């Protein structure tokens, strides 16, 4: 017999190998089925939620901010405080006046104190006082003047304003916003102080989402026009002069909403465009019916929202 010639195996040996192979295949299939069943029983579905939507969410957020501040302070070395340790905010009170004190002290008219982090100094309201739209500190908290209201357009009466779930986005309207579960409810907080709009002295408000209580609606302008967006007041260093909104009465139960965009008193009024009715836009032009709004329900007195004139 030559080298390399295969040696024939007896039939009983071949049958034994075949049986062993079938048994191994059967065991393998059983293991795969067991693993699949076990995986199916222990599968988990991940759902993204905003901290404000879970139990104790706001307390958790406060602790996260403190932990972040402590980390930044340690990393910064010789610093007086981290920014998030200095800044305090909730729906009823804003501590930041919008002023800085990196070079000079806070102006006496603010009634504020200078608090420094490693970047610059900030003029903050001391305990028991809150910042007004004019950048001064006033005693007491903000006054909630409207709760869980919907804001509807006069010209496009079936459209309801809502804040998108992603936040920091353009404020929109939809004819079926309630049916779709959108965040259509708003709370209005009146800030102390008045701003000059034309010949009138008008109060300002935080137009705040009731669903996402850190998010306030205000204007992001691009010259003479702009869009109404959401701003996260809880992120720190948000100037109340920029994030607060003028709300005034035009006639009956119709209102105009607008934001002061610079120190020269230029107002951007909210309105709906016939070309782009899904988003709330803004303009320096005095709006017609498309820039007038209704509150539902509307229980405010004339003294809360004075005349726009």
Task: Describe what you observe in this structure.
This protein is α+β, with helices and mostly antiparallel strands and 309 residues long. The protein folds into two domains: 88 residues, no CATH class; 154 residues, Trefoil (Trefoil (Acidic Fibroblast Growth Factor, subunit A)). Helix content is 19%, strand content 32%. It contains four helices and 21 strands. A ten-stranded antiparallel beta sheet has the order 15-16-20-19-18-17-14-11-8-21. The protein has a three-stranded antiparallel beta sheet with strand order 3-5-4, with no helix packed on it. β18 and β19 form a beta hairpin. The longest helix has 31 residues. It is globular, with a radius of gyration of 31 Å. The protein starts with 10 loop residues before the first helix and ends in a 13-residue tail after the last strand. The N terminus is likely disordered.
CATH level-1 class of the largest domain? Mainly Beta
Alpha-beta classification = alpha+beta
Largest sheet: 10 strands, antiparallel
Q: Give me the CATH fold name of the largest domain.
A: Trefoil (Acidic Fibroblast Growth Factor, subunit A)
Average the pLDDT over all residues and give the rounded result: 77
CATH architecture of the largest domain: Trefoil
Strand order in the largest sheet: 15-16-20-19-18-17-14-11-8-21
Q: What would the principal axes of the Cα set say about the shape?
A: globular
Radius of gyration: 31 Å
């Amino acid at each position: 017999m030559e080298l390399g010639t295969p040696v024939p195996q007896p039939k009983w040996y071949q049958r034994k190998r075949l049986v062993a192979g079938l048994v191994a295949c059967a065991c393998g299939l059983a293991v795969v089925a067991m693993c699949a069943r076990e995986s199916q029983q222990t599968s988990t579905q991940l759902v993204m939620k905003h901290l404000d939507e879970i139990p104790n969410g706001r307390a958790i957020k406060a602790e996260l901010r403190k932990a972040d501040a402590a980390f930044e302070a340690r990393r910064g070395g010789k610093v007086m405080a981290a920014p998030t340790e200095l800044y305090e905010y909730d729906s009823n009170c804003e501590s930041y006046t919008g002023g800085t004190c990196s070079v000079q002290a806070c102006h006496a008219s603010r009634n504020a104190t200078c608090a420094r982090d490693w970047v610059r100094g900030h003029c903050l309201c001391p305990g028991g006082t809150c910042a007004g739209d004019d950048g001064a500190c006033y005693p007491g908290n903000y006054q909630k003047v409207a709760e869980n209201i919907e804001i509807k357009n006069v010209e496009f009466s079936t459209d309801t304003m809502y804040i998108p779930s992603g936040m920091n986005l353009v404020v929109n309207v939809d004819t079926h916003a309630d049916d779709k579960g959108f965040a259509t409810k708003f709370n209005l907080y009146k800030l102390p102080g008045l701003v000059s709009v034309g010949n009138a002295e008008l109060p300002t408000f935080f137009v705040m989402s009731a669903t996402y209580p850190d998010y306030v609606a205000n204007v992001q302008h691009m010259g003479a026009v702009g869009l109404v967006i959401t701003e996260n007041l809880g992120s720190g260093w948000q100037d109340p002069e920029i994030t607060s909104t003028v709300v005034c009465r035009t006639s009956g139960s119709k209102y105009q909403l607008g934001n002061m965009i610079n120190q020269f008193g230029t107002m951007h009024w909210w309105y709906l465009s016939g070309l782009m009715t899904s988003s709330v836009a803004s303009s320096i032009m005095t709006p017609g019916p498309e820039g007038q709004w209704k509150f539902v329900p509307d229980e405010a007195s004339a003294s809360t929202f004075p005349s726009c004139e």
